[in-house]
Prior knowledge:
The complex is a heterodimer. Chain A is mainly alpha-helical. Chain A folds into two domains: 22-81, Helix Hairpins (Orthogonal Bundle), CATH 1.10.287.110; 110-191, Monooxygenase (Up-down Bundle). In chain A, 63% of the residues lie in helices and 0% in strands. Mean pLDDT of chain A is 86; it is low at 187-194. By secondary structure, chain B is an alpha+beta fold. Chain B folds into four domains: 17-238 and 322-403, 2-Layer Sandwich (Nucleotidyltransferase, domain 5), CATH 3.30.420.40; 240-320, Actin, Chain A, domain 4, CATH 3.90.640; 410-521, Substrate Binding Domain Of DNAk, Chain A, domain 1 (Sandwich), CATH 2.60.34; 534-633, Substrate Binding Domain Of Dnak, Chain:A, Domain 2 (Up-down Bundle), CATH 1.20.1270. In chain B, helix 8 (240-254) crosses helix 10. The longest helix of chain B has 30 residues, at 534-563.
Amino acid sequence: MSESSCIDATGELVPARAGETHFDVLGVPRTFVLDARELEQRYKALSRKLHPDRFVTAAPATRMLSLRRATDLNQAYKTLKDPVRRAEYLLGLVGVDVGREDGGGPKAAPAFLMEIMELREGLLEAREAHDAVRVGAMTTDVRARAAAALAEVAAGFAAGDTGRVTAAVIELRYFRRFLDEVEAGGGDDDEVAA
Amino acid sequence: MSLLQISEPGQSPIKEACKGRAVGIDLGTTNSLVAAVRDGRPVVLADDAGRALLPSVVHYGADGVMVGAAALARAAEAPTDTIASVKRFMGRGMRDAEVTRKVTPYQFAGGEADGVVRFAAGGRAVTPVEVSAEILRVLRERAERELGGELEGAVITVPAYFDDAQRQATKDAGRLAGLEVLRLLNEPTAAALAYGLDKQSEGMFAVYDLGGGTFDISILKLEGGVFEVKATGGDSALGGDDFDRAIAEVVLRELGLAEGARDAAGRSLLRRVMAAARAAKERLTTEPATELVLPLPSGEVFRHLLTRAAMEALIAPVLERTGPACRRALKDAGIGPGTDQKLDGVILVGGSTRTPAVRAYVERLFGLTPLADIDPDEVVALGASIQAEILAGGTANRDVLLLDVIPLSLGLEMMGGVVEKIIPRNSTIPTAAQQTFTTFADKQTGFDVHVVQGERELADQCRSLARFQLKGLPPMPAGMARMEVTFLVDADGILRVLAKEDVTGQQASIEVKPSYGLTDEQIEQMLLDSFEHAEDDVKTRLLVSERVEAEGILAATRAALERDPDLLEGDERGEIERALVALESAKAGQDHRAIHERVEALDLASKEFAARRMNRAMERGMSGRRLEEVEQKL
């Protein structure tokens, strides 16, 4: 395991240093391609070392440091485990602000926005017509397009082309929101057995 | 051998002497328990009479304070001096609906300015924290007697749904009882810990916790000794008491007592019908049919044959109300259709899960045979004792770690009463959010901050957690002073606020006024409402924000027209003014989309005018900062 910036070689807690990134906290290379399983294992292994539960009987300053570092770790993991958040964060590190999901930042191309609007309308219509087959088909289609956009994000990073990444991230957000809407359902959500 | 143990490096002799004296306490609404790990196994500790369950009842009499069964025995003769179900009042204020609703037999002592609930009992005023401390003190003494010495510390369990104020009150009660509170632990998480270690289980587990009056559902991932809570949810106005009520309803109908006639029949008859219903329900756990027998005031005896099938039909509607919370929790945990996660087991907790119909329902709901082989009344205390032993540095389960979540989102009230969520529900704790506040007036030296908890979009629909005043900023021009505030939720689920002035690095002072607002039930109602009203809320929120934006653009455009009229060309002024009027009328309406469209129309109409103004501004050599402002306004 490469080193986390939260602990030193002897396993002692270390305060955050200026410019520390989420990648430093988790002790993983600063790259878009991360293995989800490996990241989870690392997060849990580090949690064991940093969590306030491990410092209940320690001095107050150490307890506070553990609280801070465990918080840093949770935030780092939350950001890096999700590919979209990870991409946004990586873009932020190189000075590209993709803004928040609900406004600001670069906008999607008008043609793409039009397409999304049509998809939304299609979903609404299919719902109103109780056309579960069509909703299912649209969902499958959008899932595939989301996966393609995610691949584009990875390819953009590999090519060092932040413009390409930004465009793909923005599209990905729209696909995700569409899928969230499908999941939120038109009230028939509760009928679906777990 | 014993010499070796005493001289173990890094362990002080005092610590060593206390080892094994950390306990887990389930401070329940109806009953409380204490447990400890002995010889590597968790066990509940019984009183002298061999009873493990301590009724959560405190009696304040002329002859002193009584706790447990003895206090319960006094409840009938001295109802106002005997406090039961104190858990419902923890962290609540006098203005809370729970208190003002007057459903309780208690009398409240008024007059205190702090707004804290006080019961008038036994000729004095006691707070819920003090009442709970009496219960905890009895459990502490029991544990010290059983374990042979002073306790090292305790883990006290709370419903996963307890908010900040309720958690704080529970911690205070522990301290008041002379306990070192090592951690507050969520009840479902405690249960999962007891099961997970007992069975050496791995995978995704649901904990279905149905008590007398509350329902909790949690989804956890168990792997390599790490118990990671993925999602939690519940309904604290739903429990086994509702089963009794459904059965009692049938009896009352057969007795010919319609809803209106019941008050005349007397509270004591109603109470006996409820008790008979509960007894019948419990007998039906093991028998296929039972006779419900009820002596009537007239001297006659009412008899009613109740089969298990008939009872199950009666309680089915109640049971089905637990379904939506379960499905939502599964979804929040990323389990279900369209995901590659599946559930590996379901754990039953709470006395009400003894009812066979509950087990059958859970089995249908999750498609798995539920685990119920640890006593559902004891499992929470047992789990808490395991956690206590770990926290105190014990070695029995050295590699176990619990990662819990915050049950309800934390947010800040923004302009227009809209909530900005800063920490979403089901975030792993400890967690934090940073927020930077900027002054909007010259020489402003502080901010008012309102923190709320809940899922709704508007602040007055969420639970008010605390109002802070961030003070002590150096007087500077508007926009210059910036305060960075960190909202930190610690491992007990309790909020801490840290603030720092950005420019001077000066620490700002914070006054925290906990706002006592709502009941548990209301919080959950809010959560339920947020799903029902999600659409309404979003619309309201969008409307508010579109209006704020429209306001800004209207003002800026009018100012620009006034300032640079010479830059207007052709019929530009006419077009811009028509767009202004159109936006003004949309702003007065309820349709956020219309406002948005007309903002864009105005944007378009004034685009070229704006560009010319920008050029002029640049020619005048305005600073970059001002330019940004101009740019924003145009």
